[in-house]
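Work Package 3 (structural annotation) set out to generate three-dimensional models for the target panel prioritized at the project kickoff. During this period the team completed the workflow that converts sequence records into discrete structure tokens, so that structures can be stored uniformly alongside our sequence database. As a representative example, we reproduce one entry of 253 residues exactly as it appears in the project archive.
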Amino acid sequence: MNYEESIWAEIYDSYNQGRHQSELEFYKNECRKTKGKCLEIATGTGMILLPLLEERIDITGFDISEQMLSILKEKAKAKGIIDIDKTVSIQDMVSFEYDTHFDLIFIPARSFLHLVRQEDQIQTLRNIKNHLKKDGRLLLNFFSPNYSAILRMTEPSEEWHHNGDYKKFSDGGLVRLFHRQQNDTISQIQNIEWKFIDGERETLSDMKVKWIFKEEFQLLLKTAGFSKWNLYGDFKKGPFTPNSSEMVWEAFV
């Protein structure tokens, strides 16, 4: 087990507690309205999937992290949800496979931005399209790039920023989380370095996040074979404007 992967999974629920509530409710409501098969890509520790399973929503999920899914399964057991191994699996979004088609596939939590290669972005969107029913939908969200914020962090920094202290799932112990970031404006990649302080143990972990512009993503959707799409500026499906901090996409086969 890779320590930084396991510690991310350990603090994931605590890190996200109270954050992104409008996003979580948006995806849960869209699944409720779908009245068909739903697939969550990058399901994490099950913050969306588990409540929907309790409501008897027909939802499946996968994640690339074995550690995240291990915690999801522990939470499912505590909730009395049976056969969770038939519901979730370890897969990646580029090459996932199912022998069924879905009415709704969604990627929450800006997870699509972890694909930093354009060929992986296109292959993921094609794979999603191939797993959707003919009237199926794709939903996903990611941040709208802010030029001034990007340009403020183009140089390497030695300064660590304290995100907060977060409880571990296993024993409630606190982990102090810090980060520093450098933006590469050529590749459109945020290079983020995380530091975890767990008692006397200090661990570093690197993360790459690729920002995507509006016109760029429309071209990705078109290249992958989607026929039409809507872009919203928030999780209430309000209009996208120059002041919108989030892009919420709804694409159709």
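Helices lie at 3-16, 21-34, 49-54, 66-79, 118-131, 147-151, 214-224.
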